[in-house]
């Protein structure tokens, strides 16, 4: 059997989005949700990483924490200050250590570095976070994703210098809420036709919101020979579509148990769903 045919028939991998907390936002990126998704046997665990002012990386989707009527940026707080406001915040390295030997890490970086650091990729905060993950898990046991083109390029350049084979994904599908209409249009066009961005960022993994993937990004990934990660797949119809072998390399879902069941149905001999 040819390599191409084997890849087309390979089961789609499953990543538990924000630890697979489902529709319970209070459980996103929580210790309990992490324990539950690991028990399911998912392939990857997805989590969001922020950076405190003292250099500590923490797990949080939001860049802010509530302080009375106001919101404060996590990037302006030390870890002790953050935990005083949100005691259950997990440190990045705690999650990495919990994954060892159990699942691969899907690390979504929600911060960027000061502009001058991108002139020296190993000095970037993104490279520091990737280095910690590689040291604990090994490069083959993780992927790193980010919305920022410059950050993708810095990570790829750092990995090359360090002799590390690391999958780094450029995420397509960012929110454009609040942007002026011309900027919204520019962003959406750059996401529907991301060839230039992929080339200049040196991304070796394409990461796309499911709507963009269906509108042509999946075809672009195939033509470029790059693996495709599709987010976030939750409904029965979407799971049925994207879990078909060959449609994607990896999908993220808030309901990893449902994604795993759908994959099992697709891969069970003689009992595959109707395409």
Q: What does this molecule look like?
A:
An eight-stranded parallel barrel has the order 1-2-7-8-9-10-11-12, surrounded by seven helices. It has a single domain (3-50, 92-267), classed as Phosphatidylinositol (PI) phosphodiesterase (TIM Barrel). Mean pLDDT is 93; it is low at 1-6. The two termini are 22 Å apart. It has helices at residues 3-9, 31-40, 79-85, 92-99, 125-137, 149-162, 181-192, 195-201, 210-224, 236-242, 256-267, and strands at residues 13-16, 44-51, 57-59, 64-67, 70-73, 90-91, 104-109, 142-146, 167-172, 205-209, 228-231, 250-253. By secondary structure, it is α/β, with parallel strands linked by helices. The protein is globular. It contains eleven helices and twelve strands. Helix 4 (92-99) packs parallel to helix 5. 41% of the residues lie in helices and 20% in strands.
């Amino acid at each position: 059997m040819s390599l191409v045919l084997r890849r087309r028939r390979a089961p789609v991998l499953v990543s538990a989005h924000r630890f697979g907390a489902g529709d319970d936002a209070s459980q996103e990126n929580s210790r309990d949700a992490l324990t539950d998704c690991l028990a399911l046997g998912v392939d990857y665990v997805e989590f969001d990483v922020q950076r405190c002012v003292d250099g500590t990386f923490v797990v949080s989707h939001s860049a802010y924490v509530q302080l009375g009527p106001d919101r404060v940026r996590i990037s302006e707080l030390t870890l002790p200050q953050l935990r005083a406001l949100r005691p259950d915040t997990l440190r990045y390295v705690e999650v990495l250590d919990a994954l060892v030997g159990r699942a691969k890490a899907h690390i979504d970086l929600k911060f960027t570095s000061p502009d001058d650091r991108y002139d020296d990729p190993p000095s970037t905060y993104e490279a520091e976070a990737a280095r910690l993950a590689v040291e604990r898990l090994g490069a083959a046991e993780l992927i790193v994703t980010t919305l920022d083109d410059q950050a993708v390029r810095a990570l790829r350049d750092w990995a090359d210098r360090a002799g590390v084979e690391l999958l780094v994904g450029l995420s397509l599908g960012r929110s454009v809420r609040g942007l002026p209409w011309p900027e919204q249009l520019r962003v959406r066009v750059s996401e529907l036709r991301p060839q230039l961005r992929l080339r200049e960022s040196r991304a070796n993994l394409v990461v796309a919101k499911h709507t963009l993937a269906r509108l042509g990004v999946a075809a672009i990934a195939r033509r470029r020979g790059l693996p495709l990660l599709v987010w976030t797949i939750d409904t029965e119809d979407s799971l049925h579509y994207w879990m078909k072998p060959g449609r994607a390399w990896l999908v993220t879902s808030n309901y990893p148990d449902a994604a795993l069941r759908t994959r099992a149905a697709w891969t069970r001999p003689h009992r595959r769903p109707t395409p």
